[in-house]
Structure formats: C-alpha cells, structure tokens
Specification:
This protein is of the alpha/beta class and 123 residues long. The protein is built from three helices and four strands, in the order E-H-E-E-H-E-H.
C-alpha cells in the first residue's frame, strides 16, 4: 500500500464507479477496504450539499499536519478541490458505462479540454 496514515478524499462518480450507476464492483470495494485499513478515507461526491471544489466538502475533517490526498477523475472539481485544501491530487482514468446522460458527457468533454490545456500550459 503506497500510503499509511494519510487523509484521503476519494471521489465517487467517475472514479469508484461510472456516473449514474449505484453499485460498486467487488474489486473496487476490496481496494477501498485495503485503503481504509491504513488511512482515513472519506468518500466525496458533488451530489452532496457541500460540493467540490469548495473547502466545505471536507466537512469537519482535521487536515492540520496531515498528508492529504484527493483522488478523482475530474480536473474542474477534484483537482481544484485538492488545490483549495492544500492536498496532493491523483487523477485517475474515468470509469464510464456508456449510459451517461448528455449533460454528463458534455461535462466530461469540457473537463477534458480544460485539463489538457492546463497541463500543456504548465509543463
């Protein structure tokens, strides 16, 4: 396991499971359990009241003097959330089902374009 004792904010939709799918694959649940065994893991979603990239999405989690990591699939929410809370960001390949709504597909497209432009500008 690469981390021990970290505070990890883990995006749900697009990261742990495709958008608009409610179930988690057994392998995802297994890996989540392994991560939780050695770290404080918090699942975050923009379907909650406090939305990323706002710092409020951390709730009352103590981040002082902790290694904080955000794992997600979207630049505009997950990366900016990490930046706002002073965390390391790990971007993962997006999980898609092919059943995403048109709105979600457009959101992904915009996010992909902006993240590629940002990466190109900052390399």
């Amino acid at each position: 396991m690469p981390w021990q004792g970290a505070v990890i904010f883990l995006d749900i939709d697009g990261t742990l499971r495709p958008d608009e799918i409610e179930e988690f694959e057994p392998e995802v649940l297994k890996k989540l359990g392994e991560l939780k065994a050695q770290n404080a893991v918090y699942l975050v979603s923009n379907k909650n009241a406090a939305k990323k990239p706002s710092k409020k999405a951390t709730g009352d989690v103590d981040l002082i003097d902790k290694k904080v990591i955000v794992i997600g699939d979207k630049f505009l929410t997950d990366y900016l959330f990490a930046k706002n809370i002073g965390a390391e960001f790990i971007m993962v390949r997006r999980k898609i089902s092919g059943k995403e709504s048109l709105f979600v597909k457009i959101t992904y497209l915009i996010d992909d374009i902006i993240s590629k432009l940002w990466i190109r500008k900052n390399i």
